[in-house]
Amino acid sequence: MEEIKSLVEAATHIVVVQADNPDADSLGSALALEHMLGDMDKQITLYCGVDIPTYLRYMPGWDRVVRDLPKQFDLAIIVDASTYTLFEQLEKTKQLAWLKSKPVIVLDHHAVVENRLDFAKASIIDGKYASTGQLLYELADKTGWPISKQTAEFLMTSILGDTQGLTNDLTSAETYRVMASLVEHGADRPMLEDLRREASKMVPEIYKYKARLISDTKFAADGAVAYVTVPQQDLNEFSPLYNPAALIQFDMLQIIGVKLAIVFKRYDNGKYTAAIRSTTQAPIAAKLADTMGGGGHPHASGFKIENCKSFGEAEKKCLDRAAELLSELDGNRPRLHN
Ligand SMILES: [Mn+2]
After folding, report:
1. Running along the chain, 338 residues long, what does each successive block of 10 average in pLDDT?
2. Ligand 1 center to 244 CA (angstroms)
3. Is residue 337, in this structure, part of any structural domain at all?
4. Angle, CA of 276, 247 and 287, to the nearest 5°
5. Same domain for 172 and 85
6. In terms of CB atoms within 10 Å, which end of the chain has fewer, N or C?
7. How far does the centroid of ligand 1 lie from the alpha carbon of residue 69, in Å?
8. Which of residues 198, 215, 248 is at a domain's end?
């Protein structure tokens, strides 16, 4: 922390870097840093290699995130990621070398990753934090960085994002203590909840599309896996309006007996992706994604195959592995009535 503190003190222009899969934690952390360090008279640029998804655009300031590193800066802070795999855009756009030429700080709570970034000058990477926002709160608290009401609200948003509203098992006693402190710093949770709900509203045609996804849902592994496939045509028509996975996955997990919800996407150029979510009884999402070359958390993960030779075969491989992991789970603990 001392090292991080002095690197920040020495810098005037700081770039906050998100990975190619921005979420409420990474964006909340980035915006919190922007406010915090801005209050310390630092110049801040927010970078992300991809567009901020629409469902996150309820966070004021999302539109300040840019896709190019500035020509001049003297420190970078990477939030919520610590693997090369999530920074393909930097590589593709030949900006990785430029980033590496500067001192870099990594703040992340993904403790176990492949291809760990190896150029950080200082880092805090610790799985005990429910979110990068929680890590950042501790860092600010200990280094004396200012936490305004706005900063507190971004930190709270990032914690609520990764803990799904303090409901999943990333949430620790410390997470609640940090939430309490953020309330004391002025964060208004009910207001944040309203903002988030407002942002997740759908237009009527998406509501109807949801019905179609529900009727297209299939089951595997004796009803323990619910899955649906979204073809390119649907992606063209509906993806700009709403992420199909977010539209239906929570409902899939509400079906009795279902432990895994998978939304596959088939692209005409051969790309094949899946978003995987699991119930608290089945913390196997990351393991399943790993088999398919992806990764993530125990209850939320995904994979992407760039040039998939056969969608059918990939789907079968994924579903077979899901069934296998589920039966291992059943072997490990007594089966409850459902
Ligand atoms: Mn996170």
Report:
1. 95 97 95 97 97 90 96 96 90 93 95 85 95 97 97 97 88 97 97 87 95 97 97 94 92 97 97 95 94 89 94 97 93 49
2. 21
3. no
4. 5
5. yes
6. C
7. 22
8. 198
